[in-house]
Every structure is written in structure tokens, then in C-alpha cells.
Amino acid sequence: MTEKLMLAGVIGDPIAHSRSPRLHGHWLRRYGLSGHYVPLHVTREVLPQVLDLLPELGFRGINVTIPHKEQVLHLADTITDRAALIGAANTLTFTGKGKIQADNTDGIGFIESLRQSAAGWSAQDGPALVLGAGGAARAVVSALLADGAPRVHLINRTRARAESLKDHLGARVHVQDWTKFTEIIDDVALLVNTTSLGMTGAQPLTLNLERLRSDTLVTDIVYTPLQTELLRDAAARGCRTVDGLGMLLHQAVPGFQRWFGLRPEVDEELRQAVLDQ
Ligand code: ATR
Q1: Each residue's pLDDT tens digit, 132-166
Q2: Does residue 218 contact residue 239 with C-beta atoms inside 8 Å?
Q3: Whose CA is closest to atom 18 on ligand 1?
């Protein structure tokens, strides 16, 4: 009998620093599955050919990272509602006869990470304040709205980008200026940084947290460093905090389940495996 190889991977340009191979590799070993998950350096020029070829080679699906997350929507046969709403996909599944399903699991990864690390938390707890209006913000805001957040305040350096996100996602999104930060902060149940500020090598995220309530949950999608200045300052004020690694781990769950047939656990062992890079 010939064994059927289970193949999956991640495409991007650059790809060397992706943590996804380590993450999926850990699950494959842990569950004793004879599959492989590989990083593939794919440039824009060859993206359509690569997507044609991968199912032929036995790939069941792939994760998609920079710069292909938007482009793959044009090459997919079906697009989930949440990927269409976000306008980008991070998870492709080859469904047979070369058909491609595009999904975006970043938002659900964000929500699941908060649910796991902040027991009892719900988006319905109260208004949220989201900093940033890029691709990550789109996923975070749409997931918060889908999960019942009553209001999402949005602050971004480039206001027009926040306005366009609001136009896309609807009336519960309220675009605010940075000058309103201290006013809004004492009324929110959740504070989220989706900008790259505070990341190792980037500029710091400087916020006045004096009016931050101690029952506000604070999270950062930056995970290098794991404990950002925002999370440290919020914890010092008595707030519960959730680091950005959880979102990365949880967004990988639906793809692994679809491709390898088993819903994997996100636990401390996985966190360590991904951090030991
Ligand atoms: P991603 O897809 O990871 O969200 P992105 O689309 O490049 O990445 O978005 C990065 C976010 O960080 C944006 O909200 C960006 O603000 P602008 O829309 O004004 O560019 C924000 N950001 C990056 N560098 C910043 C800086 N120095 N000051 C303020 N905001 C910054």
C-alpha cells in the first residue's frame, strides 16, 4: 500500500522568518501525523502558476503571508464571508479538481486568543478602542463586530484610512482623532494595538494611560517583544493583558484542522516551541 502524503505550507516573499513551519511542525509531531508543512518563497510573478501546481503536487492547502494576502482573493474559486469582508485571505484550502477556497482566520484567531487567555471575556462586554487601520485592524475590527461589540473606536495616524475602514465595516465603528485618546480610554472594555509601534526595531508606542480603568482588557498584536511597553504599563495599572503570540497561534488552528483532519490544541508547549526559534 502506498501512504498518501499530507502536504501543506506557507507562501510569501520574504518567507524565511515565518514562524508557521515551526508551529505546524510542532502539531504534526505531537499528534504523530506523517505530514509535512513547508515554507515556500513565492514571488508575485509566479503566484498564479504556483497555486495551479500545488494541488497537483499533493498540497491540501497553504497559509498566505505578505505580500499575497489580497491578490489570492482574485485567484480563489470561493471566498468565505469573513475573508471577503476583510478583503484579504491567510488560509487557502484546495478542495479537489484544483478548486481553491480562500478564508481569513486572523480575526477569529484574535478572538480565540482573548477567550483563552482572559477567561470570561466577551466582545459584548463594552466598547473597544482599536489603534491602527491596516490589514490587521481590518481583521480585528470585523471580528469584534461579528462577536457583538457594541461600539469600536478607531484611531489611526492616517485618518482617511480609518474612515475607509468605517465605510467598509459600518455604523458601529467610530473614527476618532489621537487627541481624543484620553477621553475615550476611560470608557472602553478593550484596548487593542494593531499598529507596528512598539515592535523591536520600530518606534515606541507612547500613550497616556492615566485614565485607563483597571477592568479594561489590554492586548497588542505585536509579539516581538512578547511583553510590549503597552502591556507592561497596563499590567502595572492592574489591567488584564494578553500578548500577541496567541493570535498567531490561534489563526493557524482552522487550516491545520482542514488539511490534516484534527483540531490542534494551543497550549504552553506550543508557545515555547514557537518562541524557541
Ligand atoms: P498590517 O497589515 O500589519 O496592519 P499595515 O497595513 O502596514 O500593516 O498597517 C500598519 C499600521 O501601523 C497602520 O495603522 C499605520 O498607520 P498609517 O495607516 O497611518 O500608516 C500604523 N503605523 C505604522 N507606523 C506608524 C507610526 N510611525 N506612527 C503611527 N502609526 C504607525
Answers
A1: 999 999 999 999 999 999 999 999 999 999 999 99
A2: yes
A3: 158
pLDDT digits (tens, 9 = 90+) for 164-183: 999 999 999 999 999 999 99
Q: Which bin fits 57, alpha (ψ -120 to 50), beta or left (φ > 0)?
A: alpha
Q: What is the β-pairing status of strands 91-94 and 59-64?
A: antiparallel
**Do residues 30 and 87 touch, judged by C-beta distance below 8 A?**
no
Distance CA 153, CA 184 (A): 8
Atom index in ligand 1 nearest the CA of residue 221 equals: 3
- 164 close to ligand 1 (CB < 6 Angstrom): no
Q: 237-246, pLDDT tens digit by residue? A: 999 999 999 9
Question: How many helical (H) and strand (E) elements, i.e. helices and strands, does the chain have?
Answer: 12, 12
DSSP one-letter code for 3:
P
